[in-house]
Amino acid sequence: MKRFTSLLIGCSLALAGVAVAQQPNEEASPGKKKKQGAEQTQPAQPKPGANAAKPHATAVREHGPRNAPGAMNEPGAEKGRKAHQESATAQEANVSGQPAGSATPTAEKEKKGMKGHAAKTSPAPAATAAAAARATPGAAASAAPSVSATGQQRGQANAAAAAKKPAPQQVQQIKAQHANFRAQPKPQQVPAVTYNQNYRIQGSDQWQGSQYEVFRSYRPEWHDQGWYRSRYNRVELIGGGYYYWNNGYWYPAWGYDSGAQYYAYDGPIYVGHRAEPPDRVIADVQAELQQMGYYKGEVDGLLGPMTREALTAYQADQGLATTAAIDEPTLDSLGMS
């Protein structure tokens, strides 16, 4: 009996030892289980920006697959899932700053608004140019084409020259004053030209029109009196030299008289078909140019350098060929033809 009791006590002690030895593991296991359970029940905290990047994946992790077993069997599960997904989307919108669906229209509105503001604040090109012109006085005038300014100046000069022209009554008075005019040679004041058979009127090849043909074709010729008399019905001594008349022009008669060869100008002189003496026509032209302010010399009936300079200035102002001679267009312009 004692042996049985001792054996029973020994077994009890052995069982108690085994129980005591296993007790720490059992205590550790429930704690571990509790920790694991807490990790399973506590939702994982998403990283910043993770919801914005993958919203659908986050919803699936939190709530499981949409087609999970038993999900469709729960009453109102679908409505709850949709409401939760909308809530998650709203949270994601708060994280990103604006709803995903309205991002593009808002950006477009902001872009249009910026363009409209730029259009309002930026001055128009015309307004900018006008402001620049006001800021820099004279800029528009300096940018104007020089051709227009030259044309305007020429037009003003022509108008001034036309205003200076003597009236027809004055022209008749000038002619009447020189009705008996006779030119006298003045070699000291107006040097004479010499004969040169190769002489050509300078620049005449550029004078276009039939009215300048006599100047282009003029060649000095030396002949005796018989030669001139046989060809021209008028050969006269005028201002110290002999001239012959041909079809409205007077020409120097070189060689007609070696003792009377004073010519201030070697070339044709237009007088019209009335065959007025050349010195009288020259005096009329000098007087009229003098009244207009072109000629500053004496009315002497000689086509010298000063008279030719005045003719050049007048012809330039009138837009005529600058022949520096009395030609048909010039005499017509002066109203003396």
Structure characterization notes:
Among the domains are: 47-68 and 78-91, no CATH class; 157-333, no CATH class. Helix content is 54%, strand content 5%. It is built from 14 helices and four strands. It has helices spanning 2-41, 50-53, 55-63, 77-96, 103-121, 125-135, 139-143, 146-164, 168-177, 213-216, 225-231, 278-292, 305-318, 328-333; strands at residues 235-238, 241-246, 249-252, 269-270. The chain has a four-stranded antiparallel β-sheet with strand order 1-2-3-4, with no helix packed on it. α3 crosses α4. It is rod-shaped and about 200 Å long.
Strands, count? 4
Q: Quick check: average pLDDT?
A: 73
Give the neighbour order of strands across the main sheet: 1-2-3-4
Order of helices and strands: HHHHHHHHHHHEEEEHHH
Percent helix:
40-55%
- Bin the strand percentage: under 5%
Please give the largest β-sheet: 4 strands, antiparallel
Oligomeric state as shown: single chain
User: Which secondary-structure class do the elements indicate?
Assistant: mainly alpha
Question: What gross morphology would you assign?
Answer: rod-shaped
Number of helices: 14
Task: Describe the structure in brief.
The chain is mainly alpha-helical. Helix content is 54%, strand content 5%.
Summary tags:
5% strand, mainly alpha
Could you give the topology of this structure?
Elements: H1 2-41, H2 50-53, H3 55-63, H4 77-96, H5 103-121, H6 125-135, H7 139-143, H8 146-164, H9 168-177, H10 213-216, H11 225-231, E1 235-238, E2 241-246, E3 249-252, E4 269-270, H12 278-292, H13 305-318, H14 328-333
Antiparallel strand pairs: 1-2, 2-3, 3-4
